[in-house]
Amino acid sequence: MIGSGLNARNKEKKRLTVPQEVKVDPAADKSDTLVMISTEYGDMIFELFKQTPLHRSNFIKLVSEGYYDSLLFHRVIRNFMIQGGDPLSKHAGPDENLGMGDVGYTIPAEFSDTIFHRKGALCAARTDNPEKASSGCQFYIVQGQVFTPEQMTMLELQRGLRLNEAQRKVYGSEGGTPWLDNNYTVFGQLTEGMNVIDSIAALETKPGDRPVRDVRMKISLLIREE
Which residues are 84's β-sheet partners? Predict the structure, then answer.
């Protein structure tokens, strides 16, 4: 489970859905939106999916407000993913446990049979909840691994999955995390900077999966008009 790290008390609080100000923006839907996540290890450019309009509009809103600037990639697991977006990470001390910050609302799940957790997928973190609603701010980027046909068959048996032909092709060539499909919302895909994911995922981490050396981010909008 890729939780946003919210503690039990926060899980118990009243769940808020995505507020009016981050409903679907018709203007944004008329353009291809790219975002650039900049780190000291390089830049990553992602395309945001029109098939996930709530997550897309919410991410655009937060990026436009500078919400993510100077936040950390606070959770890094090699061959799995790198996670960031906790507002508490901006001024966190070196020994603080992170992952409990949020923006006070969740976003309804937006799943698609054609969008997978392939390497480079930009996805919404979440806590356990029956609706599979996403955190309003925390996200992760998939590194994952390449699977053989036999490994995929074993995953299906162990986890009750049914991978279609397209999924098998992706996970057998590019790699990813197939067991997260239709459990966590994927709302974007990396187009440039795959080496940056690998560099961050390879960092030494402390207990709790926080990198020993802080990795800060800055996110910018790159809108390509149609």
Answer: 73, 139
